[in-house]
Amino acid sequence: MLQVEMVTGKATVVCAAKGNLDASTATTFRGAIALCLGGPGLIIDLSEMRFIDGSGLTALVGAIRRAQDQRTQVAVVAPTGSIRDVLDEAGLDAIVSVLETIDQALAELDDDVGALLLTEGFR
């Protein structure tokens, strides 16, 4: 199962994906990320992701590339653990910043929506 929540700030959209990102949920993930595109900044928050496989990684890389093609700055939040290990092994940091916190991602994208994110529970 996969849930994706979206919070829009002044210039950055945070899409928080929770659950499993695999062959059975990749299409849902792609659709959710498509709804998050259009602004100057996108943070893909994987801090509550439990599992990602090759299909999920392909969907994630595709979403990042789509955003970058639209000139959207992208950062991925993946604090620690197995998800971070998968992203590191895949070399994702070669195409996007992979950071430990939302605050780091906001600083990376130079956005000022921290107060909104705190009230929405994204930290």
Low-confidence stretches: 112-123
Q: Which word captures the global form?
A: globular
Distance between the termini: 22 Å
Based on CA atoms alone, the radius of gyration comes out at 13 Å
SSE order, as H and E?
EEHEHEHEHH
Strand content: 25-35%
The class by helix and strand makeup works out as: alpha/beta
The main sheet comes to: 5 strands, mixed
The tally of helices reads 5
Count of beta strands: 5
Proportion of residues in helical segments: 40-55%
Average pLDDT value? 85
* Spatial ordering of strands, largest sheet: 1-2-3-4-5
Short description:
With 123 residues, the protein is α/β, with parallel strands linked by helices. It has 5 helices and 5 strands.
Walk me through what this model shows.
- It is a single chain.
- The chain has about 120 residues and is an alpha/beta fold.
- The chain has five helices and five strands; from the N terminus they run E-E-H-E-H-E-H-E-H-H.
- The protein has helices at about 25-35, 55-70, 80-90, 100-110, 115-120, and strands at about 1-10, 10-20, 40-50, 75, 95-100.
- Strands 1-2-3-4-5 form a five-stranded mixed beta sheet, with helices on both faces.
- Strand 1 (about 1-10) and strand 2 (about 10-20) form a beta hairpin.
- The radius of gyration is 13 Å and the shape is globular.
- Residues about 110-123 have low confidence and may be disordered.
